[in-house]
Write a structure and sequence with these properties.
The longest helix is centred in the middle third of the chain and has 75 residues. The termini are far apart. The protein is an all-alpha fold. It has two helices and no strands. The protein has one domain. About 90% of the residues lie in helices and about 0% in strands. The radius of gyration is 35 Å and the shape is rod-shaped.
């Protein structure tokens, strides 16, 4: 916290002017902080969307691989049944 100066202690007008300057400085810093937070929120949304797409692609990839593996196993089992059990 900023301590009042000797001029402020003696003059209400000087105190009001210095407080207005301090207030404007704080307001400017808050505006900059608000802009940074807004930018950060939009970046977080972008990352969330990218992760969602990656998760969806990975799920699709797992399903595709699973179907491929099950199909291959079914073909191998069919081959063994045809050549060793039926004959």
């Amino acid at each position: 916290m900023v301590e009042p100066t000797d001029i402020e202690k003696k003059s209400l007008e000087a105190h009001v002017e210095l407080c207005a300057e301090r207030y404007n400085a704080v307001e400017g810093k808050l505006t900059i902080l608000d802009d940074k937070i807004t930018h950060l929120c939009s970046e977080i949304v972008d990352v969330k969307l990218a992760l969602s797409k990656m998760t969806e692609k990975n799920a699709d990839r797992l399903v595709t691989w699973g179907i491929g593996i099950i199909g291959t196993m079914a073909l191998i089992i069919g081959f063994f049944i045809e050549h060793y059990i039926i004959k």
